Amino acid sequence: MEGAPLRISAQATDYNGNTVQSSDTVTLRQDEIDTIREEYIEFNVAHGVPTYDKFTPIPRDTKENRGDFAYGILDPTFVAKLAQLQAAWLAKHGNFPWQINVYYRDPVHNKYHADNNVGGGPSSGTDSASRHMYGCAADIQTFPAPRNTAADTAAALRFHKALSALADSMHFNVEPLKASNGKLGSGVGHVHVHSCTP
């Protein structure tokens, strides 16, 4: 998806308002990565605008890219560290599933996620510091899902606590559970982990 074309020219004037020099008019068109990067500016994303070379083609509507474009960011150091967490989890709890729900979200999609209160907290998806926008965060599904009974919810809570403890022991930043008083945090449905400095 390309942005609308922009026709740009420049004029230099002196202190009296007289044109001293004019440029030719040029037509510029943003590509998809430029459009994504503009979102970081428009939403005043806390950790700044990622450089152009950070973006890579990633199919939309996949766990790797819950954004609105066919490009995103997957931090290779984070992905490798997450694979170590997966291996440790399966070695310790091999009878439990492992499912990543999301890695990357572009700023507009991240704001939609936050505005609709889809879980998340200060370190995840509900503010301009979300590491999901830098490809170094993941939401890991807890089980059972769906949770139809109190016993299901209790089992998912045990899953959440066990996975959170393991991730913490491996030096991930782990978002705490949402408090009953409404304080921001993750819901019991997923464990949010991140590990990066954008």
Search tags:
198 residues; alpha+beta; Muramoyl-pentapeptide Carboxypeptidase, domain 2; four-stranded antiparallel β-sheet; two-stranded antiparallel ribbon; elongated
CATH architecture: 2-Layer Sandwich
User: How many individual domains?
Assistant: 1
The SSE order reads EEEEHEEHEHEHEE
Strand order of the largest sheet: 7-8-10-9
What does this structure look like?
- The protein has helices spanning 32-42, 76-92, 107-115, 150-169; strands spanning 5-8, 11-13, 19-22, 26-29, 56-57, 71-72, 100-102, 137-141, 173-174, 190-194.
- With 198 residues, it is of the alpha+beta class.
- The chain has a single domain, classed as Muramoyl-pentapeptide Carboxypeptidase, domain 2 (2-Layer Sandwich), CATH 3.30.1380.10.
- A four-stranded antiparallel beta sheet has the order 7-8-10-9, with helices on one face.
- A hairpin with a 5-residue loop joins β2 (11-13) and β3.
- It is elongated, with a radius of gyration of 21 Å.
- Mean pLDDT is 87; it is low at 119-126.
